[in-house]
Amino acid sequence: MRDDLSGRIALVTGAGRGIGLAISSGLAHQGIQVAMIDVDPVGLQEAAESVGGSALAVQADVSRPDDVQRAVDQTVEHFGGLAILVNNAGICPMSDFASITEAEWDRVLAINLKGAFLCCQAALPHLRRSGTRGRIVNMASVAGEMGGVSTGAHYAASKAGLIGLSKSLAQLLAADGVTVNCLAPGTTATDLTAAWSEADLARVRDKIPLGRLAQPDEIAQMVCFLVSDKASYITGATLDINGGLYLR
């Protein structure tokens, strides 16, 4: 049985490409109206047009409170509400621990963790009004569960923090019927990994029992599940989607 999600309204951050674009497309395919948020305006409108339907492109920096509030307000004004928030925006500098500067640490935490906090806070009144249709899906990472070396300690710390934030919000919003969950993907085939050498890709694949990287559409399918009525009794969870790389 397919849920009737038609007419529900979602905001997806980091939606201009990669996983965020795949999520936006997947939600739109379910009949959900999508606001696509990205800091980089280049290609954002084209990405929204590729999603089709009534997708709305909004340029905003999730680390800036004023930008976040404007994006939420614009979404609500354009579509008439907001029921689903997907916090996907993030950066992943490949820095070894000794070379991480204070500025780089602050930037990673500001986008990956503070950005999700700001979006959740700005969207909160609208999600509460949505009641049992309200959903937050936060994009964590396997690095937040098992630590990160090649991805950087700051990236791993931000994703671990996102898991903790999600658990706190799940408890806070349970009385309103709003669910809050995390996805923890492993390495996914995106523009970032496309620039890796074949040797680097092979080293990563060799660590994954399924022997391949995730595809953005596979992540998007899990998001579509979590925002559906089929997942109405799942909250505070972190769902692993890593090909067996991390087993718990």
Describe the protein:
- By secondary structure, the chain is an alpha/beta fold.
- It has one domain: Rossmann fold, CATH 3.40.50.720.
- It is 46% helix and 14% strand.
- The chain has helices spanning 18-29, 44-51, 65-79, 102-130, 143-146, 153-173, 191-194, 198-207, 216-227; strands at residues 9-13, 33-38, 56-59, 84-87, 135-139, 179-185, 238-241.
- Helix 1 crosses helix 9 (216-227) and helix 4 (102-130) packs parallel to helix 6.
- The longest helix has 29 residues, at 102-130.
- The protein starts with 8 loop residues before the first strand and ends in a 7-residue tail after the last strand.
List keywords for this structure.
alpha/beta; Rossmann fold; seven-stranded parallel sheet; 7 strands; 46% helix; 14% strand; globular
Task: Please give the structural blueprint.
Layout: E1 9-13, H1 18-29, E2 33-38, H2 44-51, E3 56-59, H3 65-79, E4 84-87, H4 102-130, E5 135-139, H5 143-146, H6 153-173, E6 179-185, H7 191-194, H8 198-207, H9 216-227, E7 238-241
Parallel strand pairs: 1-2, 1-4, 2-3, 4-5, 5-6, 6-7
